[in-house]
Amino acid sequence: MNKKTKIFLYFFLYYWLPLLLYCILIYTLSSHKYPVCVPKIFSADKFIHFFAYAFLGLLVIRAFATLRLKENIALLIMISILLSTIYGLSDEMHQYFVPYRCADIKDIFADLFGSAFGVYLYYLLSIKYRVAVLIPGLTNWCKFCKKDK
To answer: Which pTM value belongs to this model?
Structure first.
């Protein structure tokens, strides 16, 4: 296996596969019938959406930070929040067609705020712990990316 293939596999397995698997998990869980669709002003459902999409936002920025996009951190943050929220919107649209489930605009807002929280949390942690993916120029973190001697 050549060096380029090792780097690609490393990035895919470590950064992109968790994101893809988590998106599949969200889609699968939202496909299950929920017993009753009762609109509430405030419920535990909003907390579930908030934290589920906070984790999704964290995974999105973590994966997208491996691309050239990382050079513009403000754009990376905006795109990560936007993509996580769009996925939440598509999930709500999907739930609309699942029997005994309903789409709720409040869930979309919980997804938006959760995504923003997860992205911001990852950004703060990357600064505190000097995560190399979000710090341009710091490339000694990848064992496959080092130059062969």
So the answer is: 0.81
